[in-house]
Amino acid sequence: MLRSYVVEELGERDAVLIVDETGFIKKGQHSAGVQRQYSGTAGRIENRQIGVFLCYAGRGGSAFIDRELYVPKAWTDDRVRCEAAGIPGSVEFATKPQLARRMLERALDAGVPCGWVTGDEVYGGDRQLRLWLESRDQSFVLAIAKNEPLWWKGPDYVRADRIAQALPARAWRRVSAGAGAKGERLYDWALTPLWRLQITEEERRFGHYLLVRRSLDEEREHAYCVVYAPRSKATRQALVNVAGRRREIETGFEATKGECGLDQYEVRRWQGWYRHITLALLAHAVLVTLRVRGKITPEGLVPLSVQEIRRLLCRILWRGAHSIAYVLSWSAWRRRHQYRA
Known about the structure:
By secondary structure, the protein is of the alpha+beta class. The protein folds into 2 domains: 1-295, Transposase Inhibitor Protein From Tn5, Chain A, domain 1; 309-340. The protein has helices spanning 2-10, 73-76, 79-84, 96-109, 121-124, 127-135, 160-166, 201-204, 236-244, 247-259, 270-293, 306-317, 324-340; strands at residues 16-25, 35-39, 44-58, 61-70, 116-119, 140-144, 149-151, 157-159, 172-180, 183-193, 206-214, 222-230. The strands form 2 sheets. Strands 1, 2, 3, 4, 5, 6, 9, 10, 11 and 12 form a 10-stranded mixed beta sheet that branches. A two-stranded antiparallel ribbon has the order 7-8. A hairpin with a 7-residue loop joins strand 11 (206-214) and strand 12 (222-230).
């Protein structure tokens, strides 16, 4: 239901599937899959559950379409503990990239329209995931670490950062990765082909590339992505656009936690986690689609935000003495003042 609803509202041929994980802090040891583990959300090791999520970035917005609870090996090796937390006996240990592949497979097998897959280093650094996507002719722009070994000009491995250092000045172009809170997100980008032995005509239709992003500040930080795509689609601007959409899953996590209670649960068992998470994701999807529909805005008002839609729903569904017209007029007043500001 969740996936079908999101695709119906946001679906388009060149949509981007984004994979990432987020953590849920816990105090005890009985919640399914909980343990002290690293979470990129907090940037440190804490006692937490971790969920892997699949986000659909399509026409005018993005929303989640799937989720999997990461169950550490210490749990799957202890079947008594798993049984106490309601984890089915069929659940075996799976890495985060393997969970991502499971969700991607469900989406692709269901015919979800998409042009690209993207994700951070956790997923881009997994060669099995990359090879599986290639086997399905699924284009991707996946982040990798700077020391990722790649075939550049031949079948000899070269680190990604060494390739970037060897690129001439003319290889770089300043391109926007999309609008941010403070304007366009400008970086210098370089794109260079990677070597592959491609025998058949079908194999030669696709290309492998290294996409490098360089910040404009004094530190000149670099970020790296491996690309697999039809040569006709692999333009610098197109690939930068895909890489730039990866941040939409991060804003999605913020919205689902802040507005839809994604992390506000006390359930411990496996089934309870999936039920709560799914309902929170569905609530977020509804808010996103309402915002997308509301982008046609009367002059002098800012577009409806997820926060404003949530406020309106709460006031209308649980209104006291105020009429719907009164609630809507106050919303228009707020949006008018935001527009003027």
